[in-house]
Amino acid sequence: MKVLLRSLSLCGALATPALVLRLTGASVQPWLALLLFGAAVVAASFVLAWAAEAAQVDISGGLAIALLALIAVLPEYVVDLYFAYTAGQNPEFVAYAAANMTGSNRLLLGLGWSTVVLISLVVASRRSGRPVRELVLDPSHRTELGFLAVASVFAFVVPVSGQITLVFGLALLGFFGFYLWKVSRAETADEPDLVGPAAVIGALPAAVRRPLVAALFVFAAVVILLCAEPFAHALIDTGTQLGVDRFLLVQWLAPLASEAPEFIVAILFALRGNGSAAIGTLISSKVNQWTLLVGSLPLAYLIGGGSGTLVLDARQVEEFLLTATQTLLGVSALLALRFPRWAAWTLLALFAAQFALPGQEARYALCAIYAVIAIAALVRNRKHIVPTFLAPFRSSRELTNV
């Protein structure tokens, strides 16, 4: 119990200065705001990880991961929906909304998935005393992957049509609701392997554990919601002072700030040797991005005074196409529920290549490369294609036989 109290006290101490700064509206230098709000986001991420792990004692691991991913991506939603809402009155913010969404999406898969897998393989190799070349996912993640597979196909509607309509957005929101309902019906794990503060929480009596887990989820969500936007703005302001282009800041540095909670949580899982939960968290986050986030953009645009249909320009269409083909490759490589080392390095290398090869032609070339490798992975994992796409519509018992 002392370990838990000490850990929660430390996280509370790290979050308090940022909360005071946010609630009082005091003005400080961008670099100091970046430090304070960043520390709060990191502290909330640790609390979120402990709560999600301990929650698996009472609810299915899939639902715990989904709740974790939903709370972890709240910063991204706050920033992106703010851009979409503002675009209702200022059309130039449409570009910022698209840039933030596509940037965070590619950052999550290209950098996040790759980093987590590589860390997991290093940890697994050290524990086994021999090289481990692929991360094997738990069969329960077939459901999340199935939802992402379906969403990745529908994602191509955006670059093909050049717009995000309100009807399409509502359909995506409905699909996200179905996703939450589906994972909530999964079987509860028997005995989750908990360590550290999560183990202390999990060992508490149910009458104490359940309200405590709920309180920790709420605390993490409140801190992330209050600190995410100023954290992103402080990062942008700091970058602006250093002479960095604003569009690039919105597309890459702001998402880096908003993705911080889920990155931290996933890396914590990976370092503890639970690579399957780590990548499962990031897969769930991708489902959130392609359903809840994209579906909410035209709604926020409408509430902000827009028509309800976000019309994209040529640059934004390129960004969405590149993001969609990258997602297709990620899904294709994971169809067998095995994440090989080569796939992690490939995703990381292609993610880095977009910075070395700017311009329209280079973007379309990267799209083609993603598509070709994805097709090759689909051919290699072809026997898993149908089971994965049908996974969202199958029962847990049927999935165990796949």
Keywords:
single chain, 402 residues, mainly alpha, A middle domain of Talin 1, two-stranded antiparallel sheet, two-stranded antiparallel ribbon, 78% helix, globular
Gist of the model:
The chain is built from 18 helices and four strands. It has 402 residues and is mainly α.
Explain this structure to me?
By secondary structure, the chain is mainly alpha-helical. It has a single domain (2-392), classed as Up-down Bundle (A middle domain of Talin 1). Helices cover 78% and strands 2% of the residues. It has a two-stranded antiparallel sheet. A two-stranded antiparallel sheet has the order 2-3. Helix 3 (61-72) crosses helix 13 and helix 6 (142-154) runs parallel beside helix 13 (275-303). The chain starts with a helix and ends with a helix. The relative contact order is 0.19. The model has no long low-confidence stretch (mean pLDDT 83).
Got a strand count? Answer: 4
State the major sheet. Answer: 2 strands, antiparallel
Tell me the name of the CATH homologous superfamily: NCX, central ion-binding region
Give the count of structural domains.
1
Q: Any idea what the shape is?
A: globular
User: Which whole number gives the mean pLDDT?
Assistant: 83
Which CATH class applies here?
Mainly Alpha
What structural class results from the helix and strand content?
A: mainly alpha
Distance between the termini: 42 Å
- As for the CATH topology, it is A middle domain of Talin 1
Catalogue the unreliable spans.
Answer: none
